[in-house]
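Hi team, as promised in this morning's meeting, here are the two structures we talked about. I've kept the exact order from the run log so nobody has to guess. The first one is mostly here for context; it's the second one we should focus on when we meet again. Sequence first, then the predicted structure tokens.
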Amino acid sequence: MGLDLTFLHAGHVPRCNARVDKYFEGYQSLQFIRRGEVELFYDNMRYVLETPMFWTCYPGPRIRFHGYQGQTWHHRYVAVGGPGLLDLQQRGLLFRGLQSCPTRYVDQCAALMDRIIGLLQTPDPLSSQRAGNLFESLLLDLAEWRQARSQSKPWMATLLTALETSPQASVDYHALAQRCGLALSTMRRRFRKETGLALHHYALELRIAKACRLVGATGLPFKEIAEKLGYDNVFYFSRQFRKFQGVPPLEYRRSRQS
């Protein structure tokens, strides 16, 4: 049985001049630039993307991107929603932020995205399921490359393991930097360069991912879930949950348990 995904739109634009400035609510998208340069903002964090590069758009930050200094770029994208997104997130496949594409795999990634885009333009009722399988295959490739990259950088592997196993409400970044053998400012800078995300933002995403599992798969009161995750205030927990997931906890629970 395939993932429960809803493909909203997709496209391949060899000379793209689009300007995107929006909040993504209820869905996410995978973007790929093969040639050209793109200026990208997650809220106030700015990047000039070097090709070839993937990046994701997701609920939470205000996301803006356009051709750097007015130039066009070679653009592919797939926008997707549905309950299957949570499964992809929990398995660590649907990343948030940036990821470079190894040069030797550029043609493979472009061809895979083109097959997905082509299937979504076909009226065959099985096309969406086939596209979902290919989309998951692409995300698995990207996850494998991320894993190989982190294993080649011991400090990154140490940091990721510590963040995934530490209580999310009490991350000691200074202690983590010492364990990684880096100054805190250096660790933050390197982490952002590797992932496209601020370190604290990544830690929050791990916290919200755990919240999604508790909200969606249990009947625990939201106050109890907030306390388990280290929140002092259930109302703040609800606001932060909505910022990251695009919907409040109650609506999220109803969508998962209906």
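And here is the second protein, the one for discussion:
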Amino acid sequence: MTDPLVTTQWLADHLADADLRVFDASWFMPGTPRDAKAEFVAGHIPGAVRFDIDALSDQTSSLPHMLPDPAEFAVAMRRLGLSKESVVVVYDSEGVFSAPRAWWMLRAFGHAAVFVLDGGLPKWVAEGRAVEQGWPTPEHGDFKAYPRPDLVRDLAAMRAVVAAKSPTILDARPAARFHGQAPEPRPGLRSGHMPGAVNAPWSLLVDRGAMHGADRLAALFAGLGVDVAKPAIATCGSGVSACVIALALARVGHPDTPVYDGSWAEWGALADAPVAAEAAG
């Protein structure tokens, strides 16, 4: 399987596989009046367990949902039933929005057999497929973390990238925020973007909750002036929608796009970090 996404039909056909694990990674932007945990309890894909992006983050960091300590992540994944031979399908309740963050996190800690459900829970429900209620308690797995630093970029690395003007920075935030025309949803952050960045709004990469196919994605990136054959780094507001870019690039054949974990939540809070307010190029 070279496509990082699977269809609802594929999941339905494999739902009873002994080595399959299904994770609900639903997450909502700050200020959204929805409760992902409550919605999971009310209805989720049969056998799914809750992958809480916020709870599975570095709780010692002031930044939102940063990657946690590998050992702590491994313990949490074992509690979710993850083993080294597991095939994981991650979904969310928006379609394709926060599930890519879980996909990227698992890969960043060395688990390669992970896929995103194209269309997510909305497509599953719209097709009349079964859901179940409650809070499952799976048997523990034997997962061990093997971090992949090639998939992660930190502040120091991004300062160097901005200074060198290479590789390309792809920013998944909406255009108005990227151009400094709309405020950030988190207080205390400046408006604008990293100098030289290209705006690639995550919503451009999906259609009614499902990700565009590879050919369409390639055309969209080309329309932004992005050569997908060249290295890029994905960023966004807090490291969630950046992973939609990473997933899209994986779909067009480039699976290892790194993500700036701190993203604008870190960069936009620093007085000495350069900020631009107009589009690059």
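Starting points for discussion:
The chain has two domains: 5-147, 150-267.
The radius of gyration is 18 Å.
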